[in-house]
Amino acid sequence: MAEVELVEQQELFEHHRFKIDPGQSLLRIDRYLFARLENVSRTRIQNAANAGNILVNNNPVKPNYKVKPNDIVQIVLPNPPREIELIPENIPIKIVYEDDDVIVVNKEPGMVVHPAYGNYTGTLVNALMWHFKDLPLFSAREIRPGLVHRIDKNTSGILVIAKNELALNRLSRQFYERTTDRKYIALVWGVPFPSEGIITGHVGRNVRDRKIMQVFPDGSHGKPATTNYKVIEDFSYVSLVECKLETGRTHQIRVHFSYTKHPIFNDDEYGGDKILKGTTFSKYQQFVKNCFKILPRQALHAKSLTFDHPVTGKRLYFDSELPEDMKQVIEKWRSYISGREAD
Fold first, then answer.
1. Euclidean distance between CA atoms 186 and 260, whole angstroms
2. 147-204: pLDDT as tens digits
3. What is the mean pLDDT of residues 199-219?
4. Rounded Cα distance, 41 and 77, in Å
5. I need a surface site. Which of 31, 65, 188, 257 has the fewest CB within 10 A?
6. Measured distance CA(331)–CA(263) in Å, rounded
7. DSSP-derived 3-state class of residue 42
8. Worst-scoring range by mean pLDDT, 92-101, 113-122, 232-241?
9. pLDDT at 8 > cutoff 60
10. β-pairing, 202-205 with 196-200?
């Protein structure tokens, strides 16, 4: 029997690896994989092959390739469909760029990316299904049509979505192979030292609360995660930080900064919604509470995204302005610190 391994289960796509049995007779690879992958159609497998996402002995193959004894087969697949009813909803979305293959959107804070437990409507996917209801990918009623990455509900910023199966497969592979470039801006408590560095540590589900993540520095649980950061403005009590992701684990930036004792400002799941730095003076305490009111979420924004166009191969770069709530709070800290220095 073939040796089967699910190498890495990502949030939005999977990587399977098969070692073909020494006694295997010649068989088309799409038929071979169709018989061994649950809830995956033969068409989906053929689309993956046509996008170059099926490798045999590290070389891409077409759907009609015939597997041979001892072949090593690898396949990257977009997420499998889920059993859930999706309802198209006429919700406005900010489209930054669109062509026949991709859409780039600037997601508002507070919007969930895709339906899940507790959030079955009002999501970005519900909105996309309305706006692109004539496209086959969005009319199939799959749980995450076109998605190759995501950002948290209360994080704002840039996302790319595929408009067809070929784009979906090729973008999935880019995110899997980490050839994209993603930069975030965060306001964090304190001032990280050194001012530029790398945070590492496996990230996995919290052992006591499955809804949040935690860092396992010994690597005993979770998956490897790497966040590069640079302090771009120092406000003494808080600082503005640019983050570049090398991996894309759930809540990665939020849990990494919490682990280093610099949680993201007003992040209520990772300890940033308390006054962690500064004085006990009531004026200062009120100032911070006012900032929390202006920015009632974690101060995190997916600022830019770079990727190769899935059809033309052209390297594309998209940038976005900080949302108004973050702008206002950053400006308040600037004014507060400059006023304190003038005293």
1. 14
2. 889 899 999 999 999 999 899 999 998 998 899 999 999 999 999 999 999 999 999 9
3. 89
4. 11
5. 31
6. 20
7. helix
8. 113-122
9. no
10. unpaired
Write down the pLDDT at residue 306: 97
Closest Cα partner for 104 from 326, 304, 300, 243? 304
- The C-alpha atoms of residue 140 and residue 106 are separated, in whole angstroms, by 24
Tokens of residue 48, six digits? 């993956």
340, 278 contact by CB (below 8 A): no
The pTM of this model reads: 0.79
pLDDT of residue 50: 86
Query: Measured on CA atoms in the order 113, 117, 122, 125, is the torsion positive or negative?
Result: positive
Q: Is 152 tagged catalytic?
A: yes
Looking at the predicted structure, is the pLDDT value of residue 342 above 80? no
How far out from the chain centre does Cα 196 lie?
23
| Structural Rg of the chain based on CA atoms | 22
Q: What domains, with CATH codes, occur in the chain?
A: 3-78 (3.10.290.10), 95-177 (3.30.2350.10), 181-342 (3.30.2350.10)
Please give the Cα distance from 176 to 93 (Å, whole number).
26
**Cβ neighbour number for residue 113 with a 10 Å cutoff:** 23
What residues contact residue 96 under an 8 Å CB cut-off, 6+ apart? 104, 105, 106, 158, 318, 320
Mean pLDDT of 294-316: 97
Which structure tokens are listed for 129? 């299904």
Helices (DSSP H) in 84-219: which residue ranges? 124-131, 136-139, 165-177
Residue of 21, 71, 99, 152 marked catalytic: 152
Contact 333, 235 (CB under 8 A): yes
Local structure of 107: helix, strand or coil: strand
Amino acid at site 66: K
CA distance 232 to 234: 7
* Residue keyed to tokens 């108004």: 324
Average model confidence (pLDDT) for the chain? 88
